[in-house]
Amino acid sequence: MAPLLIQAIIYTCYVLGLIRPFWALCGYLFLLFLQPEFIWRFEGLAGLSYQQPMMVCIIIGVLVNLSQGNGFQRNLILLVSSLSLVLIMWISSLYSIRPAVSEFYFDVLWKSVVIMLLMVHVVDSPQKAIYITAAAALGSSYNAFRLNEDYLMLGWCRWINTSWGFKGDSNVICLFVMPIIASSTVYFLTSKQTFPKLLALLCMFVHVHMVFILESRGGMLGLVALFVTAFYFIPKSPKVIGLSFLVVSIIAVFAGPPVIKEFQTIFAAQEERDASAESRFTLWRAAFLITCDYPLLGVGPYAGQYMIPQYASVFQGLPVKHPHNMFGEVATGSGVLGLACYLVTLTTPMIVAYRLRRKYNDPKDSGLQFLTLTPIVSIPALAVTGMFCGSGMMESMYYFTGISLGGMVSYQRMREDAQQANEECELTPEEHEEYDEVCDLPELAQA
Hints:
Number of strands: 0
Shape: globular
Number of helices: 20
Strand content: under 5%
Structural class: mainly alpha
Helix content: over 70%
Distance between the termini: 44 Å
Largest sheet: none
């Protein structure tokens, strides 16, 4: 039954892509986070291919309805930085020491950037930002539920050293779902609707428990950064403080001894660290030295891992060793300029959110709080998690960048339109009659 439903969703998204590209993007994110080709791999969906034809349909639909959407006049920095990142990665891949590996990396990267820019354009209202985030959260929640189910049935997690899905090891999986955890946490703390709040809490819980059972130290530190940042920026009230205490209590109850033991190793003294924790510093130093030797374009996207053994004697003899650092991966692969464009691209939503919160300081506006707090909370969590794993091409980071910017730009435009309408309504009696139709618009009156 499930494979048939998945196929029906895919073909529906093909059609929607041509006439309603936003809803097709919702379906695309739902499927991307669900990973049906892995969940139902034994039921005929192994090797399922849908992304390329779906994106072709969506691009056609966007071009046909190009006049509808946000455009990029307010997002020129993101447009320039992301396209510069693609250009630098492309030039670097031409001189890569491992052309095949760099070609694969670049192929994923440029497609992620294109989809990010599409999301900036089509997410042209705050409601759409919530809808598309909910679609991604729904697919990811079922995926996380199946992982939790497998853990409960066996009594132990077999996916710590074996990839769950096709995104990478346990650290990369935690990086992949970190924006989902951030958005569900923020929605739970800011929404005024009871049932959606409970759904957001459930979503957050299954993902946090997923991070725990995968025993990802980077993911655990990312969660700490996420919750601390959320509590710092969230408007304080007795209700919010109570909800925060509830979240922390639930997490503390379900963090068993293995999780606590793994978390404590992060802060262990040098002589008490295990090999995995201690080797991180050696890998980071090697990545830094490679970047210093190849500062302009690096050694090729995703090719820095083949140079690590030459810069770290402890790994000599190995054919490849990943730097286990998102920033080290980008820097060794595309140089300092590529890293700069990468950082600008992914931090732009946080800067825009901070400015928007200063301009419209309204703690009671749940829409504003959700749109601005999500990037403010998620980006530090991604940065901390990314310090312990490398995946600069991870799609979820780019997609949520597009969603956040699209939602915030549309929110600002709506507020400015409402303010302009109010100014036009404050006219002399003679001028007021001319603008009656404008003043009577229900959506402006509501705003």
